[in-house]
Every structure is written in C-alpha cells, then in structure tokens.
UniProtKB/TrEMBL annotation:
Species of origin: Methylophaga sulfidovorans
Start and end residues of each UvrC family homology region profile domain: 261-484
Ranges for domain GIY-YIG: 24-102
Stretches assigned to the UVR domain: 211-246
Gene3D superfamilies, A to Z: 5' to 3' exonuclease, C-terminal subdomain (1.10.150.20), GIY-YIG endonuclease (3.40.1440.10), UVR domain (4.10.860.10), UvrC, RNAse H endonuclease domain (3.30.420.340)
Name of the featured protein: UvrABC system protein C
A GO MF label: excinuclease ABC activity
GO biological process, one term: nucleotide-excision repair
Keywords, sorted A to Z: Cytoplasm, DNA damage, DNA excision, DNA repair, Excision nuclease, SOS response
Gene coding for it: uvrC
Amino acid sequence: MAEEVKQTKTSEFDSASFLKNLTSRPGVYRMIDDTGTVIYVGKAKNLKKRVSSYFRKTGLTSKTRVMVAQIATIETTVTHTENEALILENNLIKDLMPRYNILLRDDKSYPYLLISGDKFPRLSYHRGAKRKAGRYFGPYPSAGSVRDSLNLLQKLFPVRQCEDSYYQNRSRPCLQYQIKRCTAPCVGLISEDEYKKDVEHTIMFLEGKNKQVMDDLSAEMDAASQRLDFEQAAVIRDKVIALRRVQERQYVSSDQGEFDVLAAIVKDGMAVVEVCFIRGGRNLGSKSYFPKGSGDSSPEELLSAFVPQYYLGKNVPTEILVSHEPEDSDLLQDVLQTESGHKVSIRKPQRGQGVRWMQMASTNADISLTQRLSSRSNLLQRFEMLQDALNLDELPKRIECFDISHTRGERTVASCVVFGLEGAIKADYRKFNIEGITGGDDYAAMNQALTRRFTRLQKGEGKRPDLLLIDGGKGQIKEAQEVLEELNLSDLPILGIAKGPERRPGEETLFLVGRAGEVTLTADSPALHLLQQVRDEAHRFAITGHRQRRAKARKTSTLEHIEGLGPKRRQKLLQQFGGIQEVQRAGVEDLAKVDGISKSLAQKIYDVFHGDN
C-alpha cells in the first residue's frame, strides 16, 4: 500500500532537513509551489537518491534550476515496486498536468474500423470501448486515416457504411447506390451470398491478404467469362485493377509484422514524436505528437516520458521500435507487459526492414517539426482552442464554411470557403449558382449547395473537411444533417453560427450537432475570432458571387433571347426607338415598321414584354 509523506514550507524550502528523513524506497514525488500548485511529478526506484539529485550544486539544466527555485513543498507516495511507481506517476501527470513535466495531449482512444455482426454487416468508423459485436481492425493513427480507408474500401468492395437507423428505414436506394458505392442491401437489390463475398474480401484486405483477394477475384472473373457474363467480368476486372493500383500507390508494405515505430526529434526549443502504425506488414499511416515542456529534453528523455503516457491504458503492440533508447527501457517493457498481458519489446533497430521503417518515421518527424516551427503560431493556437471548445477528438485542420446570398430571392449564390492551419485556402473556394428553388428559400439553397459539394467529395473530388461551419441557425443545420446523412457522412462535425439579436460581433449563437444546448464562447475567445473570420470570409465571397451573377444578368438584353432577332435587327430596333424602354412601350404595328421585322417577329417581341395575351 502506498504511504503519503508531506513536507510543509515555513519560509524557504529546507531541502537538507527534508532529505535527511526521506525514505530510500521506490515511489512518486510531487513538487509544489507556494500557491499549492503541483509543478512537477516524478518517479524513483530510490526516492532519497532521486530527489537529492535536484539539490546538488552543479550539473543542473536551466529548466531544472528554475523549477527547484519555486519549490515550497514536496510530497511523496511510497510504492511497493518501481513498476507501481511508473503507473502512479503516469496517472498523476495526466490528472494534474504539471507545467514542468513533458505532457502529451490525451487523444482519448484509438480509432478503429468495425465490421458489424449483422445479417448485412456494416463497415464503420469506431472509437472507444469495443462493446459492439463484430470484427475490429486497427488501431489507426487518426480519424483521417480511418476515413481514407473507408473511402477506399467503398470503391473496391461496396459494403454498406450507413447508420443502422438509416439503413432500416429505407424504401428506395440512396445516393450511395447511384454513385456505385453501395449495392443497396436495404431494399434487397443484392443477395445475402453476394453481399457476403464483398464482406469477406473486405476482411481479407484489412488483414493484409491482398494476393488472396486478387486470386479470388480473378477466379470469379474467369468464371463469369466462361458463362458469357462479360458485363460482370468487366466489373470484377475493374476491381482487380483498382486493387493492384492500391497496392502500388497507397501503401508501403513489408512481408510481415505488427509494431509501432517511434521517432523523436528535438530542435529549436520544440520536440516531436512521430508514431507510425504497422499492422499486418502494412503502414496504416503516422501521426505527429508535440509534447509540451519537452523543448530542452534529450530524445531519450522525451521517449521515456512519452511511452507510458501514450500506451498505458491502451492497446499495446508486441514490438515498439524507437529512434533512441529510453532511459528506463527495461522498466517500461515490464510495466507494458504486465498491463497488456502479452510480451512487449522496446528496441532500437540496428539492421534490415526495421531500419528502413525508422528512416521513414524520422523523415516524417523532421518534416512535421519543420512545418510546426514555420507555421503561424497565432492561427495554430486558435485552431487548438477551437478543438478544446468543441471537445473534438482531433485538431480541425480544415474548416469549410457555407453561406447564401441573394437580393429578394434573385440570382441566389452559395459560397464555400476553406481555412486550414496556413489560413485561407483560396484555391479550394467554390461558388454554387442555385437554380430550381423558390426565390428566397435559404434552406433549399443550403441543401442544394451541400448536396453538390459532398456528392463530388464522394466521387473522389476535393478534400474532406474536419469541421463543417454553417452560417445560419437550426434550420440550416437541419438541412446540413439531412444531406450528410444521405451521403453517409454523418460523422462529420457540423457547427452552426447564427448572429445574435443585435447582430453585433461577439454575440453569436453557436450550435454543435450532437451537443445539447448552445456552445458558449466569450467575446475575446481566440476560437470565436477564428469562427468569425471564416464566417465573414464566406459572407464576403457569397456576396461577391451574387453581385457578379446579378450584374451579368442585367448586362444581358432581353432582346437577345428572342428567336429570329439577330444582332443586326436588334441594332436597327434600338436605333429606331432610341432604347429598350421605348421598344417595350411600342405596339406590334409600330415594331413591324422597322426594316427586317416581320409582323410575326414583332408579335414575339411584344409578347416578351407583355405576355401571350
């Protein structure tokens, strides 16, 4: 059982007195300043020896000297073993977030792909506890990696990805069927046996059995050709070609192995750990982590702090390749083995495929750190604060905002602007000329614009946003929900931003789909400033597009649309009457007096301005 020991400050921390009575047993120590805030948490095999090292006269880093000068109190917790101390230290760091510790932002849990256990299984994104029945594949480094895999698999094997509630209430095929991303099992357009084949091929693909999948498909193609079903053979042939291209372009593969690759780099006061996920010999992608308080640490110290925070309480692979040997590698292995229930190896690769994986991870780490150092820190801070405010699983690196503009329903235009960590991405801006709706119906206009934008996305055009921002209230948000559900994109976060009653900046009302009530941000919040900037840019772009469309329409003469009235006759007509207004006032007989204008053509001109009667 852990034992608590506390030293209370009188005027200045008496390190000699405290160390004199400190135990040599393993445990955890907490350094506390004069405000009662824990500023550092550490573990030790020998508490007396480890804590004493902070009060030696030489050999301390500048960061450590500044920290020690702030100590008012030290509390210790004695544990049975060093392993127990490591686990306790990890829990306290995550709970207290001490400013002098190396801190890893909590990513909550890994994302996975799930194939459900239904009669017609669903392929879906999953994060959290594995309570649902079915097969889980992963983990993946990010939600984006999972969505890329889902999009890819939809093209290869059209297994349904829609929500069960949506699937169970269909009476006709949805848009996914029309764009050949689903075989519509919801309305019985595919047999259970045929659907089962696609599910089996999906599972084999996710297990890395690509060659077996292609062999099966080739056999099916030959069988279809033998029975003269050349249309089906062509469909299967296209799958084989697509699968082969995927192998060539989408993945970096080795013969076997399930492990993680961790590359650590410290440069210019900032540090990064790049984590690459290798499963079934396939690289599932990588993710960059920038731990706080790690700028003056060595790569070994960085990994020593990173590994327990990252892996404890989560799934741990059997092997972890590291760019630098952590200071307490043996201890970390023992704790991870105990926690996971299987053997765990932490090692620095020396030869072969492991070295090649590490080179790739180190290259990605260096690129990520260079980009981080050169990015505009103020904008990055706004994105991070927006993530915290909305409680998003991942940083929203791409925001798309939609707005509608018209004048009394005339020439409606919808705008889509895009913002990333680098600011406005103007090359990705889009305008949509809205047609076929009742003038002034903003809800229908929003529905049409979103449908056109995200249908193109499902066809492989453009990039998927991390956050969809809608300039409007609950009505516009509802339209967005319906469109994304129809297109099987219901996991995309939707945020509505509506102007307050006085329409003053800082009084906006925010609605996040899936969260009860409003999202409250103060008027000086950097996250709100970011949303305002994106919203205002969408508004500007929509108004500009609407004005251009309206001006173009008004520059076009009504006479240009009359059949049989060419440029020369139009010119004579305008010269004769002195302008379009006088032409509009003229009768049929007066119009027919102009050279080249017959009585039937004069009637057409008259009808354009006055109607058929």
